[in-house]
Specification:
Blueprint: H1 2-8, H2 12-19, H3 27-40, H4 46-53, E1 58-63, H5 69-84, E2 88-93, H6 99-112, E3 116-120, E4 138-142, E5 151-155, H7 157-170, E6 177-180, H8 186-201, E7 210-211, H9 216-227, E8 234-237, H10 240-252, E9 262-267, E10 280-283, H11 286-301, E11 309-313, E12 316-318
Parallel strand pairs: 1-2, 1-3, 3-4, 4-5, 5-11, 6-7, 6-8, 8-9, 9-10
Antiparallel strand pairs: 10-12
């Protein structure tokens, strides 16, 4: 900094002001300092500035799994939005969703010096009163049951499920089977509850559900069971990857989709339009979820009040060719 000051003919304090973007420096002086920095190859030490100011321009993200479509796409959206706002992202993945692991992740992020934390937790965990988070850390939660303790951003699981079930009932199906996600998953629980509520609201039979683990392999195993049920004409699958497995099993067992069994998924992954047949599914706006998380974090960092509770991002039904009436009538 002293070398820059000497070459530019200014004080070290003026160099510091230019480095920190102080608008009080007149433009001609600023340009001399910038030219001197370029000539000498000088770059301000952002780490040192952060330690002095306490503003690290970094958002920590704690997530349980990077194999989940929702987690990966939400993380991507958070990283993109944070980058546009001039923030970096530090990721701490958890190998198991235990309270000790969550506490340990917060300790690591505290050591790495982050300004705020986004928790992407798809399991039932944060409603337990024994989990104590550091009081000084600003936290936003994605896809969990944190109640009113934190600001939670999630897609509207109930709305999406109701649209999927309603679509199948409107096509003429007497009832709808359901392949649910893992029991510990918060999103799977919401979709299962909404499926049952949608059927009961219409006075329809609630058939036994099947359960998978989000993977195509578990969808395939469930699909083999569905193929053996002559009364099954429609199934709502809790995610598109399991729906892919269901489609394969039905094909192998000679059950045509949608002529014999209609299939509707959830997520609208990029590949779902290329399934055979193209999958009717519920679209989740993960980009919006990530954007709202970062917006909430930035408001907290500006000292604004961010209330606890839930912000829901609307879903929409994407109608393709995997659902028809129970006699093969088309969705159109």
């Amino acid at each position: 900094m002293a070398d820059v000051a000497r070459v530019a003919g200014v004080s070290s304090q003026t160099v510091s002001r230019v480095s920190n973007g102080d608008s009080a420096v007149i433009e001609s002086t600023r340009q001399r300092v910038l030219d001197a920095m370029k000539e000498l190859g000088y770059r301000p030490n952002s780490a040192a500035r952060a330690l002095k100011s306490g503003d690290f321009r970094t958002i920590g993200v704690i997530t349980m799994s990077l194999s989940s479509t929702g987690n990966v796409r939400t993380l991507e959206a958070i990283a993109n939005c944070a980058s546009r706002a001039g923030y970096a992202v530090t990721l701490i993945p958890l190998d198991a969703p235990t309270q000790d692991n969550v506490r340990g992740a917060f300790t690591r992020l505290d050591e790495l010096a982050v300004d705020a934390v986004v928790l992407i937790m798809e399991v039932h965990l944060l409603d337990t009163k024994s989990l104590t988070l550091p009081p000084h850390v600003k936290v936003v939660v994605v896809d969990s049951d944190a109640g009113d303790r934190f600001h939670v951003v999630d897609t509207d699981q109930h709305q999406g499920t109701r649209m999927a079930v309603r679509h199948l009932l409107d096509l003429g199906h007497r009832t709808v089977r359901h392949l649910a996600g893992p029991e510990e998953s918060f999103a799977a629980g919401r979709r299962q509850a909404a499926w049952e509520a949608a059927l009961r609201a219409e006075g329809r039979e609630v058939p036994p559900l099947l359960r998978g683990d989000w993977t195509p392999e578990s969808g395939y195993e469930a699909g083999l069971q569905l193929a053996q049920d002559p009364d099954c004409t429609a199934v709502f699958v809790a995610n598109d990857q399991m729906a892919l497995g269901v489609l394969r099993a039905l094909h192998e067992r000679g059950r045509r989709v949608p002529e014999d069994i209609s299939v509707v998924g959830f997520d609208d992954i990029a590949e779902s339009a290329s399934f055979i047949p193209p999958l009717t599914t519920v679209h989740q706006d993960f980009a919006k979820v990530g954007e709202l998380c970062v917006e909430a974090i930035l408001r907290e960092l500006r000292g604004e009040t961010v209330e606890g509770g839930r912000t829901l991002v609307p879903t929409r039904l994407v109608v393709r060719r995997s659902a028809a009436g129970p006699w093969g009538t088309t969705a159109e």
